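for the writeup, i need someone to sanity check this before i put it in the appendix. the sequnce is what the collaborator sent (i think, or maybe the updated version? ugh). structure was predicted straight from it, no edits. if anything looks off just tell me and ill rerun, i have time this weekend
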Amino acid sequence: MMGVVITVTAYAQSAQLDADAKYAQQLLKAGEQAPDFKMKTLEGKTFKFAKQTKGKYVLLDFWASWCPDCRKDMPNIQRMAQKFAPMGVEFIGISMDTDREKWKEAVEKYGIHYTQVSELVKFQDTQIASLYGVKWIPSMYLIGPDGKVVLGTVLSDKMERTLTELFAPKGQTYGTQERVSIDGAKGKLTGIIQKPVLKQGEQCPMVVLCHGFGGRKDGPMFELIADSLANHGIASVRFDFNGHGESEGEFQQMTVPNEIEDAKHVIEYVRDLRYVSKVAIAGHSQGGVVASMTAGELGSEDIAAVALMAPAAVLRDDAIRGTVMGQQQQGDPADPPEYINLWGLKLGRDYILTAQRLPIYRTAMRYQGPAFILHGTADRLVPYTYGERFNDIWPKSEYVELEGFDHGFAQNIYRATDLVSSWLIRTLK
């Protein structure tokens, strides 16, 4: 039985990682004054831009009901409006429609509640497109309270990323943080436990976060997830695997099997904490492989939920082919040297040999609890089909694709981490 499959469109108008390089060349630049304009609303009233939005952040969304890319992008715009309008951002839809009824039908179909305006003439003939340098839709602008452009883009995820950073609480830490030292497979592991403020005797779930190949516990991906979880009553522990970051051990001795042992040690440590009610595990890239296999070895009796971000199950096939993290290696893959140089790191022979025989899916499928898999369609390190396969072997899984996203979800890390943390919150609470 396969799990649920959901497709999330990040941007539809181009397969490029940043379509702005092609489609946003003539948009106004940050710091330029946004031109004033008057236009009729869908209800026939006159909308005066400068007067009615003075002192506010304003998002201008250029779109049309006849534009397929605009229709695909609409859920992103709607999500932004739902999130940022209560924070004071004024959303204005600028339609390139010529038919009022089709415009109205689209507004009703998508449940658009923010102001809509149009000249009801052909796109190329509109004054507003000329004023704002719009040659492609969807296009959008963020205008600041001073009336100047903050961002012009054709990418809704870039806009959401900008809004998220602009309105993020400054210097705020959710819950409490504690540095811990845990015995691992190759020495002491350094970790950070972040937990909500709990009452005497109160318990909460704990999520173990596993970083990827050559990574570390610090960085926006796991910090954003940890903050969101703590804000919703869930603890987390992020740690450096052996040979990484602040943990002991040599990178040359690191293998996926001993990272699995590290993860098991961390799970054992947090499971013994009095305030922990149940344990879940999440991982990115190689950390996703470690999370999946750890869950398979321990089973759903010990692991309450699993979340994988771009799980790098390709590493087994790569090792057999003689490549590591997309880099072609010299020599015979069946008889690798003592180590290979990779980005200034010494990757040991044991890593390659153990990876070649790693029973990733066979081990992972022994886990039968709830699972979530997130993958980007533009991931060149790990094709998204490797993420899909986890969805095939786990009957209680949910698979989400982010169109045009790379291996690190750089297009909008906030969107990616929000999907993961939201699923964990729903599942664990």
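The longest helix spans residues 68-84. The chain has 14 helices and 20 strands.
thx in advance!!
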